[in-house]
Input
Amino acid sequence: MSITYSDFRSDTVTRPTEKMRRAMAEAVVGDDVLGDDPTVQELERLAAGIMGKEAALFCPSGTMANSIAVKMWTSALEEVIVEERSHIYNMESTHMTFISGVTPRPVRSVRGAMDPKDVAAAVRRPNVHTPRTSLVCLENTHNNWGGAVVPLENFRGIRRVAEANGLKVHLDGARIFNASVASGVPVRDFADQVDSLQFCLSKGLSAPVGSMLAGPRERIEFGRRLRKAFGGGMRQAGVLAAPGLIALTEMVDRLKDDHARARRLAAAISGLPGVRLDPAEVETDIVIFGFEHPRLGVDDMLARMKEKGILALAVPGGIRLVTHKDVGDEDIDRAIRAFREILA
Ligand SMILES: *Cc1c(COP(=O)(O)O)cnc(C)c1O
Output
């Protein structure tokens, strides 16, 4: 007997909608490396417009978009200020050193928001011994801080430090639409505080592939050359851009449903034995909790959940579940039942 799983591992597991699949089949395409795929161009214009930037670039992944951003804003012998739990620092296979030849300088934070004073203190006074600081990277929502929304006011504070020290600011906005929906702050307001940002079409917005990198036209055109050098030039990419257009125009509002479901799940499991979770800290679609149970380790717990049809992922010291389009209220009920049965 085969079991159907409720897949809470990530919002990246979302399947394209029927409408997206039709748009893929019908997409008008050209060769985007030669600059004539109209659907990719439409997506790049739309993304730039939404973010209030001059230009945008369609990238195969968020990791590539972040890699291009770091490379386009830095030179060798430089340093980049990053938040210590950030994706760009911990989860992207060291592209800062590997591709850009720059060192990351991790700074602590409270739920993803670095104190602007700590950022200022991390800026190097360059001399023959030390790297020159050239870039600050922000992340919103903050993945490893359980989908926390970094407040706009914090962006403003860090922007002031960056301007005072001649630094650029890049936002890893993989889930910037989640931040916007949860806080009521338009994405554009976050984007206004940074020089460039990337955001993912392939997470809660449910497109199959792709991220957008937005910024000043001249840097984005340089980024286009970097994308080619990284092997990310795509030919009839309109078939991938077409669902991206639907992601941006039709899939943003529904993120609030993911957030409500994550809150309901968090509230229901927070009192159970072994679960270390403050439901008030669940702001968006990610539920991360510490797990310390007298009989079950994290791997045992994940295996028991899997037997009951619930897929989740281990994180350091705990477990992560993410809500998204393809887990509905029944899946939340099923997960809550599984938790109660296992931990009863
Ligand atoms: C998923 C993610 C990325 C990278 O996206 P990929 O498309 O998986 O390479 C970057 N930053 C954050 C915060 C993410 O969650």
